Amino acid sequence: MRLSWQPAERNGYVVIDCDHPSARVRVWYVELYMRPGSRTNYPGGVIPHTTRLVEAADDGSRLDLRCELEDGVVVVHRVTVGNDYVDFRSEAVNPTDRASDVAWGAPCVIVDDFTGRDRHDYLDKCFIFLNGSLTRLPMTPWATEAVETPGQVWCPSHVDPADVESHPLSELVPSHGLIGCFSKDEQHLLAIAWQPYQDLFQGIIACLHADFRIDGLQPGERKKTRGRIYVMPADVSELVARYRVDFPEHGDP
Prior knowledge:
It is a single chain. This protein is mostly beta strands and 253 residues long. The chain has a single domain, classed as Beta-galactosidase, Chain A, domain 5 (Distorted Sandwich), CATH 2.70.98. It is 6% helix and 47% strand. The protein has helices at residues 112-115, 236-246, and strands at residues 2-8, 11-18, 23-34, 46-47, 49-56, 62-69, 74-81, 85-93, 104-110, 126-130, 133-136, 152-154, 179-182, 188-195, 197-202, 207-213, 222-233. The strands form two sheets. It has a nine-stranded antiparallel sheet, covered by helices on one side. Strands 1, 2, 3, 4, 9, 12, 15 and 16 form an eight-stranded antiparallel sheet that branches. The protein is globular, with a radius of gyration of 17 Å. It starts with a strand and ends in a 7-residue tail after the last helix. 42% of the residues are buried. The model has no long low-confidence stretch (mean pLDDT 97).
């Protein structure tokens, strides 16, 4: 796999060129940063920011990025690639003398090319885990009412439901923080996880989210997050085993 950066206005995309399968995955990085109360306060709860490329390795193995939020918070990101995964390491710092209420950030993983589908028909390629088992979307019940529609949000038990994406909120609680999809030929899968994580979200542009949690920053405070996108053969047992090792904080999948 190989990484590149595609700038777009005040933001941009981490572009992942996959070998197996041959597909391009774009990650809108970071789509947005939100304050508490985001489920009903959109777009009012958005904290404007810019993302810029600091450095890119010539061989496509690494990107260094910097987000600057309107309230003064800075988030630096290092993105690296392995044989079948992309690793994200971030540190948020508040260099100001005022507390920041930044609650979470949203990497938006766009999977149209990977699934061979568009936003109208990619849903049944996607999955989360319920009661410990991989469950394809859509499932019953399926929420339909929200500030923004369509889409579906799943809130883990450790997060206030008022502080998640503003799309329809499922009453179902995910078993853990993995969300993903299968490739167009069903021979490979892509799965996303972040620590700590805020919610899981199936979006409206053939995208999937495992949004990362910041939970506010006091003056001078620093917090780290990490994430991973797996691109691997469609062996669910192997995915879960690797996830257990990489994200032990999420408990036993």
